[in-house]
Design goal:
Blueprint lengths: L15 E8 L2 E9 L2 E5 L12 E3 L4 E6 L11 E5 L5 E5 L7 E2 L11 E4 L2 E6 L3 E9 L18 E3 L2 H8 L14 H5 L7 H19 L4 H13 L4 E8 L4 E9 L39 H10 L3 E3 L15 E10 L5 E10 L11 H30 L5 H9 L7 E13 L1 H8 L1 H21 L3 E6 L2 E6 L8 H22 L9 E15 L8 E4 L1 H16 L3 E4 H10 L19 E10 L7 E8 L3 H18 L3 H14 L4 H15 L8 E3 L4
Parallel strand pairs: 3-5, 21-23, 24-26
Antiparallel strand pairs: 1-2, 1-11, 3-6, 4-5, 6-7, 7-9, 8-10, 10-11, 12-15, 13-14, 13-17, 15-16, 16-17, 18-20, 18-21, 19-20, 21-22, 23-25, 24-25
Length: 688
């Protein structure tokens, strides 16, 4: 089946054209062919042929650009012919459908013939766009390089050289009215000083943004200022999700034109409400992207520059949505790492009450400067948000280091000291006083214990029921992390008596705490999820610290550290002018004493661990007690049960409240009773 048109001008040496198809943003270069050329969807006879192939029917060429099922596009949609003067004519072949040619004020009506330029673009239904350009004029000469008509970019960048020349204007200062537009300020100004006035306007724009920087208000201020100064119908702050490669409207301003009439819509995105909306007045996240912006945004990601869309230098279009635009300009918004995180976008539409003048380099520069100001505001907000969220986990000193170097939060292996602190008596107290009073009490207890972690620049990893977990040595490197952990434990122990007095009405039986600390290598990073961030350690070091805390109950002591922590503690115990990063003096380390308690094998672990009790205070008798205990422990390990029993009997008599001595004496007595000649020095635990 052929279309009803004359083919008298079809000949081998006739005009040749190049044809390019866009399906939405997807480009498909079809190739070159002669005239006449028919374009439409597939017919039944063409089902076995590939789409977008140039078919030579003898009296005409034909291209099927859509499947037979795409009913929105006629089978015989349009025909391109050469007229008698050697120009081009486009014919609407259908009796009911219309289509739009870029640059023409009215659609091409059914069966209408229109004269077109040597390069033109047709907007068809189903988001299809055809670009046609003459590559040979029929005389054998080529219109370009003999291959194809080059696609002229619809976008141009700012001419930096000419802009710089215009701005070099000496000491001239031109007063600028607040809210003035570039067009009205410079439209009739032939003065050579117009560049300085532009600089003044740029400064005014920056001042406007800085007034409200630090809050979300500056988004709305930016779009409204840009829209009024550059006389744009619409202005948007668009933010980009780099992972999903999606854009969303953060703030927008749409100026209402009292003389505007409803415009035809050729399938582009909804433009949104036609009333001025800025900042908090705009529904964040729900506003559709401005029509015609997608390809401009795509080009910005590619070129990373401010781009101006000018139809005068571009006689065709790349997509149906951008056809409704008269002018458009967009500037990228960068983060502090140089990545594009958004764009400041503005445009004017056909039929606007604004002057139909090009968007100049000075105006685009204003948009670029404003985008820079928005970028600075976003970076500042981001840093403040990070800092605020970090204060939930880190001390101010560590937070400041993280703000300066976020890479410290990246998952890695690090040597750390992990502390577990369990609140003794929690269950009995909560059962007796009820949930309301329990929450008040536990909040106070956790607050005081947490401050001990913060004051030593530790990380508050988590609260698990009635247990607090903390870490030192990451994310910022702390060579003395073991000392800091022990300092925190010391401070925690000093907080118990004041807490007992403050809550004596609900804790008559005296609650207490048990602390376990272990030093070793752990995997540190976000141990939470993408939904909830939680910075902390993972690995055997954490498990062992938890087991050590539980073992404090077995020995009846408040704080135990492992051999690894004890060795690291003594390695830094003599540090001069010892203080934390936040300037808080270390007042506990010099008061800390340790004694070796036992060699144990915690439940669920295969390794043996030497444990040391951590003791704080100025009791001069404690060191003597510790030395006598350690001598008895050594005798026990050497299977000298009689010698160990003699030392421990005297020790328990003098210090009946020393639980570790009582526990060790029990082990000695048990070995003697069972006639064990060679004792196993390792205490193996089968329960937590």
């Amino acid at each position: 089946m052929t279309a009803p048109f004359s083919t008298a001008n079809a000949r081998p040496d006739a005009i040749k054209v190049s044809v390019t198809l866009w399906r939405g943003p997807q480009e498909n270069r079809i190739g070159e062919c002669g005239l006449p050329l028919e374009i439409g969807r597939q017919s039944r006879q063409e089902l076995d042929s590939d789409l977008c192939q140039i078919q030579d029917h003898g009296n005409q060429f034909r291209i099927a650009i859509a499947e037979i099922t795409v009913l929105g596009l006629p089978r015989h949609a349009l025909n391109i012919q050469a007229d008698e003067q050697g120009g081009l004519v486009c014919v609407n072949l259908h009796s009911r459908s219309t289509f739009q040619i870029a640059g023409m004020p009215h659609p091409v009506m059914p069966e209408e013939r229109v004269k077109v330029a040597n390069e033109f673009t047709v907007l068809l239904p189903e988001n299809l766009t055809i670009h046609v350009a003459v590559v040979s004029d029929g005389s054998g000469s080529s219109t370009s390089d003999g291959t194809s008509s080059p696609m002229v970019s619809p976008f141009r960048t700012i001419a930096k050289e000419s802009l710089a020349a215009d701005a070099d204007l000496g000491d001239f200062t031109m007063p600028v009215n607040p809210g003035a537009s570039f067009i009205r300020t410079f439209g009739e100004d032939s003065s050579p000083h117009r560049g300085q006035a532009a600089v003044d306007l740029v400064r005014q724009a920056l001042a406007v943004v800085k007034k409200s920087a630090g809050s979300d208000e500056f988004f709305g201020t930016a779009v409204e200022s840009v829209a009024k100064m550059v006389e744009l119908d619409r202005a948007y702050v668009l933010l980009r999700d780099g992972i999903q490669n999606q854009w969303r409207v953060r703030s927008h301003y749409i100026e209402q034109d009292p003389l505007s009439k409803p415009k035809a819509n050729f399938g582009q995105e909804t433009e949104g409400p036609q009333t001025p909306q800025t900042g908090d007045d705009a529904p964040v996240g729900d506003t559709p992207l401005p029509s015609g912006s997608r390809l401009l945004l795509k080009q910005i990601l590619k070129e990373r520059k401010t781009l101006i869309y000018e139809p005068e230098s571009y006689q065709h279009t790349i997509g149906s949505s951008i056809m409704m635009l008269d002018r458009a300009v967009a500037a990228p918004i960068f983060d502090d790492q140089g990545e594009i995180i958004g764009a400041l976008y503005g445009d004017r539409t056909f039929g606007s009450h604004h002057a139909d003048t090009p968007i100049g380099d000075l105006e685009a520069t204003l948009l670029e400067v404003m985008a820079g100001a928005v970028s600075a505001g976003i970076v500042r907000q981001r840093h403040e948000a990070i800092q605020n969220s970090m204060t939930q986990f880190f001390s101010p000193a560590v937070t400041q280091r993280l703000v300066q170097n976020e890479d410290l939060l990246t998952g890695r292996d690090a040597e750390v000291s992990v502390l577990f602190c369990d609140i003794r008596g929690f269950s009995s107290i909560s059962e007796r006083v009820g949930p309301e009073k329990t929450i008040q009490w536990i909040n106070d207890v956790f607050t005081q214990l947490s401050l001990c972690v913060v004051r030593t620049d530790g990380v508050l990893v988590n609260y698990i029921g009635d247990e607090l977990v903390a870490m030192w040595g990451a994310p910022a490197e702390q060579p003395d992390h073991a000392r800091r952990a022990c300092d925190a434990a010391c401070q925690m122990l000093q907080q118990i008596e004041p807490l007992r007095k403050r809550w004596s009405s609900i804790t008559p039986e005296k609650f207490g705490i048990g602390i376990g600390i272990h030093t070793g290598t752990a995997r540190v990073g976000n141990t939470g999820s993408k939904v909830k961030f939680q910075y902390g350690p993972l690995g055997n070091t954490v498990n062992l610290a938890s087991r050590v805390q539980n073992i404090t109950k077995k020995f009846g002591v408040t704080a135990i550290v492992t051999l690894a922590t004890q060795e690291a503690l003594h390695a830094h115990s003599n540090t001069e002018n010892s203080e934390t990063e936040n300037g808080t003096p270390s007042t506990c380390t010099e008061k800390l004493q340790t004694r070796r308690l036992a060699t144990v094998r915690p439940v669920g672990m295969s390794e043996n661990v030497d444990l040391y009790e951590l003791q704080t205070g100025d009791d001069p008798n404690w060191r003597s007690l510790a030395d006598r205990y350690e001598s008895a422990l050594q005798l026990y390990h050497e299977s000298d049960l009689t010698g160990a029993a003699r030392v421990l009997a005297s020790l328990v008599h003098e210090h009946p409240d020393d639980s570790p001595s009582v526990v060790l004496l029990g082990r000695v007595v048990d070995a003697i009773t069972n006639h064990i000649e060679s004792v196993d020095p390792v205490m193996a635990f089968t329960t937590k």
